[in-house]
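Long-time lurker, first post. I've been practising inverse folding by hand and with some scripts of my own, and I keep getting stuck on stretches where the structure tokens seem ambiguous. Below is the full token string for one chain I'm working on. Before anyone asks, I'm not after the true native sequence, just a reasonable design that respects the backbone. If someone could post their per-position residues I'd love to compare against what I wrote down in my notebook.
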């Protein structure tokens, strides 16, 4: 089917469209109503229908593909690979669900999961889904304070953790972080279930509170736990946003709408049919990890490859070797991941047989043109930029190669996914921007299935955070965008990051792209810094592919020139700092707000999601030293 017709139908006849898509999943009771919009901006998809995520991801495939691989969990850290068929997955999830029940975890109870990319994290998620418990996976890289905040918001009945994770060959004990978080939390759960890989011989246990997964599993080897049939709009899981711009929000997902969005997108966006192999390099702690390491591929009867480790260890060919070995068809990663590889020998991209690989999807941050081009040429497959948010749960702007591939345009993730009533509007007037005009990206309600149903226990925050920015009831993405005449949308940066130079509004992305087009530049971050004369001026922080030594000033000047040539004098960076590292969140997003604060001699704010504290010191030193180029 043509993309245009598919999309049009989803907008013009949503009930008919989604009513048809609902058949992609199993319902215990079919929906009474496809869409209930009686209380906007809230909406209820497939109201009255009952279903279950675990049933759709596991049980439903047993008859036809019980022996097929469901999950391949590869760890380049421990050196262990586990190949898990749908039948084995079914057994393990039932055992895990029985453990949860033995700990009195039931429907509607929250379970916090704090684990790296390992098979048991997937079992735990599916076991929760099976019995109707609400999981909240917290990225294993978060420190104890972040974990404590999320525990207090979710008020879980149980916390499941691993003894430790590993990064670059180094063991990172998790249990001490859990202990510290529970000491800090005001709502600590009564039990901690530990999946012990024996990585941390020093691990201590609190008698009575801490339980051993292996021991409990042995007690439930033959368990069969019936599926809890949930009403489509009951919560399935909570997932906190990355916190790039402030206090993370507990994004609440439903059951039926999410299942349908997964079934639809795995097929039409990611082009994965039952039996095919998907490899997402995301962590299970992120939105991509939930949707395309776990629920999407499994609901679609595919094989999901789960990877624990760095893209460069034991060597920079590790991802591509896995693609060859398992016949990966669709790969999903982030621009940050690809930029890491870009600093390595491109020969690694050519070393393995990638004839099965069809698509590389990248999401999470703007995908700059040089990186897109480098990886497209290196792999010889189309690279599809993908725009989404934790809130949406699946791509909002994408191309749909599983349906009808439209041309890739570098710099733009493409066209709206089904059900997204997307507009770019003028921030001040609310009027729709013309092609080529900048504005705020908004979605008209109802949000499609799969998108958040609310903020956990805070309907007011849901409305205030997302639907209160304009006179009309519109979901604001809080991202700044521009649409071309063909309807392709480009994200220019977050609305907080827009730089206002003497009345001209510039997206950070535009200037960053221009700077990064200089061949010596590895990555650039641009922020608006207060200026008495112009209001704000752009300031550049950039890392180089190779240390330029004394040549840094010349490169910095060349960057400044490039911006003036490409974007004009208004965009001219007033200062350029060459640094060795840029501050990022644990999910690889640039912390522009902290950069801006430092450049304005303010407090950098909440740094609890910062990946590498050294990067911030690096910026402080550069600011003290003075710019490599100033105007
Ligand atoms: P918080 O909302 O807590 O500040 P966050 O917005 O960083 O955190 P996520 O939901 O993980 O948390 O990130 C979504 C954001 O990432 C988008 O709103 C957008 O700014 C950016 N983003 C994602 N994909 C793309 C893309 N393909 N191109 C440009 N930007 C993207
Ligand atoms: Mg956000």
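-- Answer (accepted) --
I ran through it position by position. Result:
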């Amino acid at each position: 089917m043509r993309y245009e017709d598919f999309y049009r139908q989803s907008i013009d006849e949503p009930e008919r469209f989604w009513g048809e898509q609902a058949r992609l999943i199993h319902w215990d009771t079919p929906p009474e109503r496809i869409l209930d919009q009686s209380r906007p901006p809230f909406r209820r998809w497939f109201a009255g229908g009952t279903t279950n995520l675990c049933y759709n991801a596991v049980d439903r495939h047993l008859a036809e593909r019980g022996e097929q691989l469901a999950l391949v969990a590869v760890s380049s850290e421990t050196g262990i690979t586990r190949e898990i068929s749908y039948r084995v997955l079914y057994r393990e999830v039932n055992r895990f669900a029985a453990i949860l029940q033995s700990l009195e975890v039931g429907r509607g109870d929250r379970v916090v999961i704090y684990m790296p990319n390992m098979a048991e994290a997937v079992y735990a998620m599916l076991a929760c889904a099976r019995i109707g418990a609400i999981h909240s996976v917290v990225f294993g890289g978060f420190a104890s304070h972040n974990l404590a905040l999320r525990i207090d918001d979710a008020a879980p009945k149980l916390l499941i953790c691993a003894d430790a994770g590993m990064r670059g060959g180094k063991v990172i004990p998790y249990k001490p972080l859990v202990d510290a978080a529970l000491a800090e939390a005001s709502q600590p759960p009564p039990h901690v279930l530990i999946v012990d890989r024996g990585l941390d011989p020093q691990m201590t246990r609190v008698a009575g509170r801490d339980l051993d997964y292996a021991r409990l599993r042995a007690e439930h080897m033959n368990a069969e736990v019936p599926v809890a049939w949930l009403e489509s709009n009951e919560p399935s899981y909570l997932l906190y946003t990355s916190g790039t711009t402030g206090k993370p929000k507990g994004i609440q997902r439903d059951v039926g709408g999410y299942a349908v969005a997964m079934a639809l997108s795995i097929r039409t966006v990611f082009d994965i049919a039952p039996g095919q192999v998907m490899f997402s390099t995301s962590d299970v702690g992120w939105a991509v990890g939930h949707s395309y390491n776990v629920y999407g591929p499994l609901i679609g009867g595919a094989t999901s490859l789960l990877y624990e480790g760095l893209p460069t260890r034991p060597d920079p060919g590790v991802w591509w070797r896995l693609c060859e070995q398992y016949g990966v068809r669709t790969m999903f990663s982030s621009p940050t991941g690809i930029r890491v590889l870009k600093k390595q020998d491109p020969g690694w991209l050519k070393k393995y047989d990638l004839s099965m690989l069809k698509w590389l999807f990248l999401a999470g941050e703007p995908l700059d043109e040089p990186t897109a081009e480098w990886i497209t040429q290196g792999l010889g497959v189309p690279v599809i930029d993908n725009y989404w948010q934790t809130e949406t749960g699946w791509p909002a702007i994408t191309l749909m190669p599983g349906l009808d591939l439209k041309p890739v345009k570098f710099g733009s993730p493409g066209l709206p996914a089904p059900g997204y009533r997307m507009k770019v509007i003028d921030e001040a007037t609310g009027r729709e921007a013309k092609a080529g005009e900048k504005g705020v990206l908004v979605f008209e309600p109802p949000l499609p299935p799969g998108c958040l149903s609310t903020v956990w226990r805070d309907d007011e925050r849901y409305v205030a955070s997302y639907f209160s920015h304009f006179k009309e009831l519109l979901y604001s993405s809080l991202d700044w965008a521009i649409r071309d005449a063909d309807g392709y949308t480009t994200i220019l940066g977050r609305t907080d990051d827009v730089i206002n130079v003497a009345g001209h509004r510039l997206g950070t992305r535009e200037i960053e792209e221009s700077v990064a087009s200089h061949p010596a530049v590895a990555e650039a971050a641009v922020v608006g810094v207060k200026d008495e004369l112009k209001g704000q001026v752009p300031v550049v922080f950039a890392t180089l592919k190779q240390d330029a030594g004394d040549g840094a000033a010349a490169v910095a000047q060349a960057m400044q020139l490039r911006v003036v040539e490409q974007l004009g004098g208004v965009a001219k960076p007033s200062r350029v700092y060459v640094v060795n590292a840029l501050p990022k969140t644990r999910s690889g997003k640039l912390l522009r707000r902290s950069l801006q604060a430092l450049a304005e001699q303010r407090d950098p704010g909440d740094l609890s999601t910062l990946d590498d504290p050294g990067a911030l010191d690096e910026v402080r030193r550069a600011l003290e030293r003075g710019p490599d180029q100033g105007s």
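A couple of notes from the structure itself: Residues 241-246, 248, 363-367, 385-390, 413, 477, 479, 491, 494, 587, 589 surround adenosine-5'-triphosphate (ligand 1) (CB under 6 Å). The mean pLDDT is 95. Happy to go over any region you disagree with.
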